[in-house]
Specification:
By secondary structure, the protein is of the alpha/beta class. It has helices spanning 13-24, 38-48, 64-73, 93-100, 112-123, 131-144, 149-158, 164-174, 179-186, 190-203, 209-218, and strands spanning 4-9, 29-35, 52-56, 81-86, 104-107. The chain has 2 domains: 4-128, 3-Layer(aba) Sandwich (Rossmann fold), CATH 3.40.50.2300; 147-218, Winged helix-like DNA-binding domain superfamily/Winged helix DNA-binding domain (Arc Repressor Mutant, subunit A, Orthogonal Bundle), CATH 1.10.10.10. The chain has a 5-stranded parallel beta sheet, with helices on both faces. The longest helix is centred in the middle third of the chain and has 14 residues, at 131-144. One of its GO terms (biological process) is phosphorelay signal transduction system. Pfam families: GerE (PF00196), Response_reg (PF00072). Keywords: DNA-binding, Phosphoprotein, Transcription, Transcription regulation. Residues 5-123 form the Response regulatory domain.
């Protein structure tokens, strides 16, 4: 992969400078712009049209969740993949960012090589959700969030056109299983799982795995606190 253009969003100048040095040190990555808050981020992304947005989640004014929601809703910026930067993997705002359209998240303590890999992963169209973190994070915060009947109904409607097997695959995705693990659980080949995933994304109008997880929980297909 080459030519991945990145926008860095953080309210600390020093952090942005460090991330710029890291990203620009790679031959296939380029910093296309920077922003110090969410509102500025929306303007910069609309102007430079990057592939990936490194988005700090906690900022004064328009925070990372609100900015991600604005980016996802605007046709000019919806194609940009948002990779959330957070201090804690149990940050209550992370689920909100995923629900708003983020493709994944990484900790600010992530080693530089792993952060670079994360940028390339989301640029390639994959969601960055570690299974163990997915299970804990989503279960904790869907349990704590008040029920939104409107969101639940909208998510449930997205499942109406799914086959029984597609629902089964979606449930396993929400449980945090990877494609190889799903293939082993269902006793099918990896290519079959990929086909199911493609159909799930198309039928639910989801951009990636992260949005599938959110739909599974908000529709009630998966309940917080489940056990395998």
């Amino acid at each position: 992969m080459s030519g991945i253009r990145v926008v860095i969003v953080d309210d600390h100048d020093l952090i942005r400078a460090g991330l710029r040095l890291l990203v620009d040190s790679e031959p296939d990555l380029t910093v296309a712009g920077e922003a110090g808050d969410g509102r500025e981020a929306v303007e910069v992304v609309a102007r430079v049209r990057p592939d990936v947005v490194l988005m700090d989640i906690q900022m004064p004014g328009t925070d990372g969740v609100a900015a991600t929601r604005l980016l996802s809703a605007d046709p000019r910026t919806a194609a940009a993949r948002v990779l959330v930067l957070t201090t804690y993997d149990t940050d209550e705002h992370v689920f909100g960012a995923l629900a708003a359209g983020a493709s994944g998240f990484v900790l600010k303590t992530t080693p530089p090589p792993e952060l670079l890999t994360a940028i390339r992963t989301v640029a390639a169209g994959e969601a960055l959700l570690a299974p163990s973190v997915t299970r804990r994070l989503i279960a904790e915060y869907t349990a704590a969030r008040p029920v939104r009947p409107d969101l639940a109904a909208a998510a449930a409607r997205l499942l109406d056109g799914l086959t029984a097997r597609e629902r089964e695959v979606l449930e396993l995705v929400a449980r945090g299983l990877s494609n190889p693990e799903i293939a082993a659980r269902l006793r099918v080949g990896p290519a079959t799982v990929k086909t199911h995933m493609s159909r799930l994304l198309a039928k639910t109008n989801s951009r990636d795995r992260a949005q599938l997880v959110v739909i599974a929980y908000e529709s009630g297909l998966i309940r917080a606190g489940f056990r395998d």
